[in-house]
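User: Modeling request: complex.
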Amino acid sequence: MSEKTSNPSMKEVVEAGEGEEIYDIELDEDLLRANKEIAEENRILLESKNVLAVDIMGSIGSGKTSLIVKLVEALKEKYRIAVFKGDLTTTIDAERISKHGVEAVPINTGKECHLDANLIRKALSRINIDDIDLLFIENVGNLICPSEFPLGSHKRVVVVSVTEGPYMAVKHPFIFADADVAVINKMDLAEAMDVSIEKLERDIKGLNASVKVVATNCRSGENVIEVVRALRL
Amino acid sequence: MHEFAMTTQIVETALKEAEKHEAKQVKDIYVVIGSLTFLSLEQVRFAFDVLKKDTLLNDANLHIEEKPGYVKCSSCGYEGRLKLEDDPAYHIPVPLLRCPKCEARVEIIEGRECTLRRVKIIR
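Assistant: Request completed. Predicted assembly structure:
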């Protein structure tokens, strides 16, 4: 037996023709593993510097950036904060955040529908981690893909709003199943939208009994302090 | 939605393996995709055909085994498939993460995997 077949996971199948051989190689490679491993490295790096990272996920226009702005206002005296802001393109939202006196790093994903651990690793190399205690990572607006790609954050928040209609939770079970805090935003519009916040909360609790659900108005800042409490910050 | 990213992973992993074994070309690629990954297999196949061009994978066939979701209920002990809700607004049936028997929350045992199982190479 030649050294070509010394690898036990590789077996020769048939002669394909003159001088050609077909080999069947067993891999069983988890294609999401690379991301999971980098996420774990990110988490270890953040913990070595005593930084708490919070992943903010949610649908487009649900109020993720508004929530972060209000959280920054509420917490910037207590913590040194940085924000990673994922978007397909533009730095509009990063500028909305940096106005409030914290470092905001835009991460443009191009056409990709979610942030991944590698993008976070690159962004972490662009800031001085020693200078922060708290990191908010705003994911790309999407309720499906981010749940498959952990980033290395310690807590995950999902933001939905009543203007998206009454079925956002039951239609996107995975993102709620993995969340620590669920925010139902635009509570002031619930009546006009004929959406029951209580029903949405029941749906979310049905997917994840341990998740903390908070209804907010992130424009006025109403109840944002409850999000702070739910995150134990 | 992230079919392109996942298919890029499939292609890159297969290429790395092909280069490691000094393959002339890759003949077949076998992957397992869980139905609870929400990956559209049609889009995976399309992305594969685009990404494989002018590489060692140029003539490779992609074989996809779809694994159905399998769940376990800690409340009533149910083990099996999830109930699907067919909603015309979505391009795939949406699974409810509830036990089809007792409505309690279920734990996912299988169906979220995306694995490159085997490659066949010619050298």
